[in-house]
Every structure is written in structure tokens, then in C-alpha cells.
Write a structure and sequence with these properties.
five-stranded parallel sheet, alpha/beta, transferase, globular
Length: about 300
């Protein structure tokens, strides 16, 4: 079945979101950090929310896009330290929706990119709760743009793989390390604590010791740092520079390209420009979007 597509708004027209009915939940991608990397629809949904359940590291400017009267609950997780267990987060969303509230579940990055959005949507639908997902800029894409680090390039990488550094309970190895090729970029989420083990496994399965690597700490946030080196020293780099989560490991030849682009940009005197880490334009965003009111009806 072909779904009809609404015409794009003309210049000067306001963009109205589809209805956000009471008693429903929206899984919102908050992007990698900066409020002005939020999508138009995510901002509009926040403007209508009665309750916001948000993760750690969400820019406060993003939370300010919700109505002052909206209930705000931090339910974030950090390296196995949970404000609420996942099952309780699911039940809280269900309970709030059954009270007739519009519930915004605000998640860092994208809900379906290592964000447990699939688990939450399954729980909601199984409970008879209407829900939708609004995509967000994932940390890897934010880091790529912020740091001039293309994830694919005809001369360096024919593909890109997004993986997690967490092993399944009882597992001694990461399955994805067995078939990673030299013409592929690998982006590892939640892998900082496993950096040395990841390098060891990749090396044992044929990756060259001098494969370029980068560790990106707090991508697109005020504390953003990028440390580059070789695969053989990945674990040492994490310790030497005392890098902390949230961090991404980026493995592959594109890291060399990043270093070349950074040098060229520095030679021209160009800064990071429109993706300056920590930049936030939420008040401007809110004005431009003219987000629909709390009681929006189509």
C-alpha cells in the first residue's frame, strides 16, 4: 500500500505536527547533545507533552521546550547504574499514559540506536498504549559532523558498522569482531571499558595493528575530546588520557582522513563553525518552529 505524502509547507508557512493525543507516548530522539540538533517534530512533541521521562546528559535547553507545567522525571542509565530499572520505566510510561497524559520519552541520540526504544515500544503496544518514535541524530553521526570525520569514503571505507561494546551475559567474546574488514569503519557504542579487549579480539581476527582509531568523548557536548592512535594501543589511549563515558570508539582508515581534514581546516583558520561543541540555540529554535500549543488540534 502506498501512503499519501503531505505536501511540503511553502516559505512562511508554519509546520504543524500530526496530533499527539492524550493517553499516548512518543519516543523522542534528543540527538547527540546540542539543543539545536533536535528535529522539528521532536520540538513540537515536547511543546505538547504533559510528562517528560528523560535520560542523563540531556541538554537542559531541550527540557525547557516542554511546557512549564509538564512533569519531568529523570530515568537515565549510566554504565549499569540505573535511576530506574528498564521494567519500571516501561511501567511508568504505561501508568502515565493511562492517566490520559501525553508522555514524551526523551532519549539521547536515536531511540532505536542502542537506546532500548524497541523494548519500550513493545511494552507500550502490548499494554494497548498508542505510541510513535521520532528519530534523532545518533552520537556517531553527530561526532562525524562535529569532528570532520566521515564514516564512509570511497578511498577509505566502503561501509560502516555500528556495534555495542557490551557483551551478552556469560559471553567471553564479541561476535562482531570476527568478520570486521579493513575497508569497513566500525563505530563502537558503550565500548570504552572494553577498549583493550576489543583491540585484542580485532587483532586476533586479522585487523592490522596500525589500523587508525579514534576515541571520541562526549560527542557534540561542551566536553568533547577526540584522541587518535593505532588499534594496537587502543586500551592504553583510553587509560593515558583518562577518557570517560559517554564515548565512541571509531576504528578504520577514515580516522586518517579525519586527521588530514583537521589539519587542512586548521591551516585555513577555520573553526568548527556551525557545529561548535556545546553550542545551543534552543530559544531561537523554539521561536522559529512556532511549536503548536499544548492543546493543539488538527
Amino acid at each position: 500500500m502506498i501512503r499519501p505524502v503531505a505536501p511540503l509547507p511553502r516559505a512562511g508557512q508554519e509546520t504543524a505536527a500530526p496530533p499527539f493525543p492524550p493517553g499516548s507516548v512518543v519516543l523522542l530522539g534528543a540527538g547527540p547533545g546540542c539543543a539545536d540538533l533536535l528535529t522539528v517534530r521532536a520540538a513540537q512533541r515536547l511543546a505538547q507533552a504533559d510528562a517528560v521521562l528523560y535520560d542523563h546528559l540531556i541538554d537542559p535547553e531541550i527540557l525547557r521546550l516542554a511546557p512549564p507545567s509538564a512533569r519531568r522525571v529523570c530515568v537515565g542509565k549510566r554504565a549499569s547504574r540505573h535511576t530506574l530499572p528498564q521494567a519500571e520505566i516501561n511501567q511508568l510510561m504505561i501508568a502515565l499514559a493511562r492517566q490520559g497524559l501525553r508522555v514524551a520519552r526523551l532519549k539521547g541520540g536515536d531511540p532505536f540506536m542502542f537506546g532500548r526504544g524497541g523494548e519500550e515500544m513493545h511494552a507500550l503496544l502490548a499494554a494497548g498504549i498508542r505510541c510513535e518514535a521520532v528519530p534523532g541524530v545518533s552520537a556517531a553521526l553527530g561526532a562525524a559532523a562535529s569532528l570532520a570525520l566521515p564514516l564512509t569514503h570511497r578511498d577509505y571505507a566502503q561501509g560502516c558498522r555500528f556495534v555495542t561494546g557490551h557483551r551478552r551475559e556469560g559471553a567471553s567474546a564479541l561476535a562482531w569482531t570476527t568478520d570486521s574488514g579493513p575497508e569497513e569503519t566500525v563505530v563502537v557504542y558503550m565500548g570504552l571499558g572494553e577498549a583493550a579487549n576489543i583491540a585484542e579480539q580485532l587483532l586476533s581476527h586479522g585487523r592490522a595493528p596500525d589500523t587508525p582509531v579514534a576515541i571520541v568523548e562526549q560527542a557534540c557536548m561542551p566536553g568533547e575530546r577526540c584522541v587518535c592512535g593505532r588499534l594496537a594501543e587502543l586500551g592504553r589511549l583510553a587509560e593515558q588520557y583518562r577518557l570517560r563515558a559517554p564515548a565512541l570508539l571509531i576504528i578504520g582508515g577514515v580516522v586518517k582522513l579525519h586527521q588530514e581534514l583537521t589539519a587542512l581546516r586548521a591551516g585555513l583558520g577555520h573553526g568548527l563553525g556551525f557545529l561548535d561543541p556545546g553550542h545551543s540555540a534552543a530559544p531561537v529554535v523554539a521561536t522559529i518552529l512556532r511549536a503548536p500549543s499544548h492543546e493543539y488540534t488538527p
